Each structure stands twice: as structure tokens, then as C-alpha cells.
Amino acid sequence: MTTYSIFNDEPKDWEELQTRVAAILSDIGYTTEVEKDVDTVRGKVNIDVFAENNNLQPKQIILAECKYWTTNVPKTVVHSFRTVVNDFGANFGYIISKSGFQSGSFDAVLRSNVSLMTWNEFQDFFKPAWLHAMIHKVHVLGKPLMDFTDYMGDFYDKEYDLLTEQKKEEFREAISKYSNFAWYSNKQYVVNFVTGEIEYLDQAIQERKAKLPIAINSYKDYFYFIRDYSIDGLNEIDLIFGKPVRKGQNYS
Length: 252
Known about the structure:
Shape: elongated
Radius of gyration: 22 Å
Strand order of the largest sheet: 1-2-3-4-5
Structural class: alpha/beta
Strand content: 15-25%
Number of domains: 2
Order of helices and strands: HEEEHEEHHHHH
């Protein structure tokens, strides 16, 4: 069974490396900023990716440096970044390197909250948290769309009766259009109901990928399509009704 990466290719430059690191942390639930100036006890420092999660108690802050270099990151840079992480009081620091690290760099972060990773190692490290977050996110986004396409509920009947004949036809066309993949957002098809573990995701993607209108080469391709598909479908239906119409508010 195929196991995908979050992204299927290497970043093409340092800006894309920063953007992708920020995207992964943002999808997990962090508020992220790229190229942020932070104040430390030694003065102002520019951080490639600043990430803060206020949903965790206590809140968690990550600082990340992205080194899209053709040479290995030297130990002096690692020492300097470790000092910034400590001075700022961040919970974790990550240096993500395209090429790797010079001898002695890993010794420089022993017994610290700083980790040294390649881009692929960074993806692999955060992949379990990212997958759980994206499965939950598309489930919450897609459940209202599934409600419209299951043909079993009457929660929208009153609003439907108020529509013009043209709007009713637009609604029927939207339901026909978005019923194709609305159920792909449902987490019950990829998560073990008893354990809560992700068990069927790769199998589901393999079974579905030929039916999707885009090439699926990564988890990002798959989940971003389902996310955008659900958002587009609900926006289209909301425009037809002139307001959001929902079966319920709690989709967690």
C-alpha cells in the first residue's frame, strides 16, 4: 500500500521552503508568520517561521529556521539559533536544512529543545499530527455538504420551498455536482472507530484517486482538494439560499 508524504517534491527555493514549513504548522493549528521579527533579551531577531498555538494550555511557540543552502549548516549557526530559542523562551526550535549539517552540529543541540532536520525529516516528524488535523478539518468542513447530498433529511425543506423555480433548479444542479465526492470528507472511512487510529487512509486514497479530477501524488493534493471542494460546494449552496442552511452546528 502506498504511503504518501505531505508534499511530494522538494521546495524549489528558500521562500517555498519557508512557506511549506509554515503551511504544515498552520494546518496543525498554529498561527504562523514568515520572516517575523521577535524581541529577545539580546535584541530583535528575524525568524524564518514563527508559529504559536493558543489552543494548547499552556500555549506553545515554535521557531523555525529554513536553510536552503547547497552546503551543510555549520555548528556556529546551530549555536546561534539555540541561543535565540532560549532567549525568546520558545517551546521548540527547528532548523530545516536542504543539504544537512556539519560535524558537531547535533552535539550542539543535545539536551536542548532544538532539533535539526532535513525537509523530508521535518515532514515525517509532523505527518501524524498533520494527518489527524486534516482528517478532522475536512470532516468538519464536509459534513454540512454531506447532509445536503444524503437525500434523507428534510432540514432544508422550508428554505427550499421559498426558492424560485430557477433557484430550485440551481440547487438540484449543485447537489448533483457536489454529491460526487462529498462523502470523501467523512472520517469514519479512514479512522478506526474504536481506537481512533488512522488505518484506512492510504487504501481509501488508492481506491478514490482515479475518480478525482486532479492527480494525487501527496497527502496535500488529496486533503486540499477535499477541503476546497467542500468549501466551494457550501458556498454555492449558501448563495442559492441567500444564507447558510445547516442541519446542525456541531460536527466534531
